[in-house]
């Protein structure tokens, strides 16, 4: 510490290592670098790091056909897409067959369905099954009556009934047997008129 003066300053022991004391590049390489992800300088901010991953090893269990089987773009999930197009081809081969001619058909029975004709009655023998049928005659049916109040389907006209004269209020009625006014109980006046004031002791 007590050295000779060099100019206006005296040499002294430095507080930390300096480059002048080393013959090699020295302590400047002891500072962590600012590139990379590992051993990065903690005083500097890190930039986004991107990793490059190598190709994956082929899976031994994979049994797909691989890229050599190229799927055409026209193959969709609904099947093969075929654009509308007109096919040009030659005339088909016509094989002639022996068919019946116009004279082989009879159109007489079809005239009544195609053209208007007058009604014609046909005559034929009675069917055998109708000879043994025992149908009921006209007198076997009973039609509902058409006259009276309770008919089946037509509207009934007004009906008036006649009966004897009632004995009540008749000329032969004995009025002496009727009840007089004294036969009925007396009704208090308070039932159908305003009640008078009542006083109790």
TrEMBL record:
Taxonomy, superkingdom: Eukaryota
InterPro entries: CIMAP, SHIPPO-rpt
Name of one Pfam family that matches: SHIPPO-rpt
Any GO CC annotation of this UniProt entry: cytoskeleton
Name the UniProt record assigns to this protein: ODF3A protein
């Amino acid at each position: 510490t007590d050295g000779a003066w060099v100019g206006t300053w005296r040499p002294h022991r430095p507080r930390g290592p300096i480059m002048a004391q080393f013959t090699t590049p020295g302590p400047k390489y002891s500072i962590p670098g600012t590139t990379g992800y590992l051993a990065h300088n903690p005083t500097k901010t890190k930039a986004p790091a991107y990793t490059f991953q190598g190709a994956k090893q082929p899976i031994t269990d994979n049994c797909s056909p691989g890229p050599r089987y190229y799927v055409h773009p026209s193959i969709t999930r609904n099947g093969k897409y075929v654009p509308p197009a007109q096919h040009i081809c030659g005339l088909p081969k016509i094989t002639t067959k022996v068919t019946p001619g116009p004279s082989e058909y009879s159109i007489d029975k079809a005239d009544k369905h195609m053209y208007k004709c007058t009604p014609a009655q046909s005559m034929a023998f009675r069917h055998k099954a109708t000879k043994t049928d025992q149908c009921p005659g006209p007198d076997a049916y009973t039609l509902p009556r058409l006259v009276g109040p309770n008919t089946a389907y037509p509207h009934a006209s007004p009906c008036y009934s006649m009966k004897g004269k009632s004995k009540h209020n008749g000329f032969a009625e004995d009025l002496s047997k009727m009840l007089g006014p004294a036969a009925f109980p007396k009704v208090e006046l308070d039932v159908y008129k305003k009640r008078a004031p009542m006083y109790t002791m």
